[in-house]
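Sequence only, no structure available. Ideas?
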Amino acid sequence: MNVEEFLEQSARRFPEKTAVVCGSKRIAYGPLDAQCERLAQRLAALGVRRGDRVVVCLENSIEAVAAIFGILKAGAVFVVVNPTTKVEKLAYLLNDAGARALFTHGEKLRAIRSCWEMTPELELVIVAGKPQGSMAARGKRFVGFEEMCGAAVPPAPTPRRAIDIDLAALIYTSGSTGFPKGVMATHLNIVSAAASITGYLENTPEDVILNVLPLSFDYGLYQVLMAFKVGGTIVLERSFTYTHDLLSALVREKVTGFPIVPTISALLLDVDLAKYDLSRLRYISNTAAQWPARHIADLRRRLPHVALYSMYGLTECKRVSYLPPDQIDIRPESVGKGMPNEEVYIVDEKGNRVGPGVVGELVVRGANVTKGYWRLPEETAACFRPGPVPGELVLYTGDLFKADEEGYLYFVGRTDDIIKSRGEKVSPREIENVLCALDGVVEAAVVGVPDAVLGEAIRACVVAAPGATLTEGKILRHCKLHLENFMVPSYVELCDWLPRTPNGKVDKRKLSASLRVLVASGL
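Reply:
I predicted one. Tokens follow.
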């Protein structure tokens, strides 16, 4: 099965059912599938062939969804890029992917005009909306999105469909060198992951899923893919900044499934949820960063009818584990066990499997494990290594975990995130969990900063709730009560906000860099 068949099968089963909602716009499965088919034919007529990479740089929208499935129907590989990406980075991504074509919005043309001279392999630019800038550049052909989806399609070879071992997507993720890495996801990888996730979430055609995360973030992207797989409805929003608008959308669209990150749960818990009719909401899922136990407890108390799924994943394999809702009260700090059709285990530095309670690196094997990093053989070899079965590759996640006696997993930290202070290895996550358990703390991030005596000093950045009477002294006293001495932060900083990546995660790299400047300045 290929990914585009998610749409095609749902269109055959539910041709008149709403597939996508975005603002005031709605489109049913039948018309959407027909539009994507025309788009694929037009792409083929303009020279896009099986295996070509096509970048989609659009806001969450019906056009973005149509572009993704039109690309898939053409046998090509889609690459979703956040529309807020600056021109230099966009040019890098286009060149790194070797993109043949780009979907973008007319409003962005003026801002990215310098991109054209930097991208010699890019031949075709498809423009959605009204152009606000020149639709002319040497070596580039510009075509309107509506024209691409129009009924009149010139004669062209029938697009050659991909097979399940072919690439479906390049999903770019942050690299340790500062340059994004393209994770190579095949049709088989995506279909396998989507089947497992929709299975344990118990998704059905009756589900209405609200997605406020960018489609460039694989967690956001998969909400569309999974909704189409089961024939559900996906509701796309472009931001989670305004909590009232978000909650109003949950009510208006009778949403049943709501994927979030911890930042969103913090926003939800800052309002009176009883004012909104959330009776249709069946589940909330969390990944990208560990869900604070306090958030879980508060949501359980305020939304007792809603199943909470705490999950863990990486772009390199999409999803690793989930904690069943019946375990959320028992072990809220766990991210569960490996999802269906997958094996996970923990190894020591020599690659030997370890027992309960022992910290080691998590390893994942299964059809969801992707093919590695695009054009980066050394980085691929470092993370995708021979597994227990001859000829297979398994993913060494770079994440430190431990498991309890029953096999439930607990995140300890990244191998490159661990702070070494006073000769001890310190997990930022463990300190953050303690900080978030203190009344008045909305969010916390912990990083290491250079220290001539300690090697690295621990610095905690804390965001307080409005009206909270927190002080650095109170926070330190709380830490001393709940942490070993070597884990107590050397510095505590009360912040109004924490820097974030486009996917909503705390940007620890940026936070650490700014704090290093302060330390160097003696502040």
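The longest helix spans residues 29-45.
Hope that gets you unstuck.
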